[in-house]
């Protein structure tokens, strides 16, 4: 028993919603523009985001550092929890267990996904303009597609259920009825945001996002 | 016992035992003659009278703790068929057989089914779960409590520190210092009391230290396991609200 875990735990809970929850929503909407507006729509969204002022610092303080803290501290929290759904087979206990499992999946996925996308832009292997093609190349590979499919569901569940827990941990939903209603709303959020992400995953698989070089090849052939 | 033509009805028990706190656990099976309305304690008493295992060999009597025999002291808490509960209110007729009995592993096992629940009482001390009225002169009557408040506070006062909610909680284990649900609910009880309220901040601050209320992970097993039906998750959320408010007040210097 050393130090005080009250404040780090509170910060962990807060960061999960602001900014990370908001970032997940932003990410879902940006991706969804690939489904709704196709290549053009997605490109516009990406440009819109990257024309924000001080974009590097926004990414650093609103995304990367919060994810790092939330993820590392979250791994520690998952380690200090037992999973006892075998003995206590209750819905909320399952949500508790899944929150930890999906948290670990999401953190690993996010590191890998960051490496595969943002880092490749930083290394000069792709550009923001080519991100759509880049994603097409990734998700047309069945294994990657399955990984993305599972990871997206895990991340969104972690966000939606985490939002429910946030409302309890900050004393906003106190009674059983409030917690029941908020759990329905959060599961609604889970479904809606998951659909947005999954639709965009399917959209990225479309021919429209096939890489420019491949397109030129087909032109030459044609 | 004389042999009879008709087989006597028996109840099968599988009991997890251990000689000493540091000894490794083992199980023993018993077939206990059935009597109507018997409960797990009366079955254990039967083993005490006649400590013979299912295979006919003699063993040492199984050790357990009990006092009130009416589910108000919490001493007889143990894990029966996978669920932590009081042995004195566990009726044999309502249990699936074989009946598996184990000590509550969240607590240090002293011997067989006897556990040391000291951490429960330490926790009550830590959160100051009492009302300080001692002094050198009579302070006179305290403020009155509203009847509506008294009604829900009375429910919280039913806690018998049995430890079942800690056993059910996935966040109470060796890797975490979480204080557990029961003492958090007791903070709500004593902070609801009109005189106890005068020291509310001390109890909240005790829960805002390491191993305090932040250890709750919202699995909500506690509220489903409490034999007294105490609304533990409501208490925890209410204290979450109070500690959050207290945190901001402290920051703002109010
Ligand atoms: S809150 Fe309920 S389960 Fe927990 S110690 Fe008190 S009586 Fe037992
Ligand atoms: S003996 Fe008191 S609760 Fe069972």
From TrEMBL, chain A:
Source organism, top-level taxon: Bacteria
Binding site for heme: 27, 70, 113, 158
GO cellular component: membrane
CDD domains to which the protein is assigned, alphabetical: SQR_TypeB_1_TM (cd03497)
Keyword list, A-Z: Heme, Iron, Membrane, Metal-binding, Transmembrane, Transmembrane helix
Signal peptide segment: none
Classification via Gene3D superfamilies: Fumarate reductase/succinate dehydrogenase, transmembrane subunit
Any one GO molecular function term: metal ion binding
SUPFAM superfamilies registered for this protein in UniProt: Fumarate reductase respiratory complex transmembrane subunits (SSF81343)
Coarse class of the protein's main subcellular location: membrane
Cellular localization per UniProt: Membrane
Transmembrane parts of this sequence: 12-34, 54-76, 97-115, 145-173, 185-204
Database matches in NCBIfam families: sdhC_b558_fam (TIGR02046)
Name of this protein: Succinate dehydrogenase cytochrome b558 subunit
Organism: Cohnella xylanilytica
UniProtKB/TrEMBL annotation, chain B:
A GO molecular-function annotation: electron transfer activity
Metal-binding keyword on record: yes
Keywords annotated in UniProt: 2Fe-2S, 3Fe-4S, 4Fe-4S, Iron, Iron-sulfur, Metal-binding, Oxidoreductase, Tricarboxylic acid cycle
Cofactor(s) recorded in Swiss-Prot or TrEMBL: [2Fe-2S] cluster; [3Fe-4S] cluster; [4Fe-4S] cluster
Database matches in Gene3D superfamilies: 3.10.20.30, Alpha-helical ferredoxin (1.10.1060.10)
Enzyme's top EC category: oxidoreductase
The keyword Iron-sulfur is assigned to this record: yes
GO biological process, any: respiratory electron transport chain
Residue intervals of the 4Fe-4S ferredoxin-type domain: 150-178
Annotated EC: 1.3.5.1
Pfam families in alphabetical order: Fer2_3, Fer4_8
UniProt family annotation: Belongs to the succinate dehydrogenase/fumarate reductase iron-sulfur protein family.
Protein name: succinate dehydrogenase
UniProt source species: Cohnella xylanilytica
Gene name per UniProt: sdhB
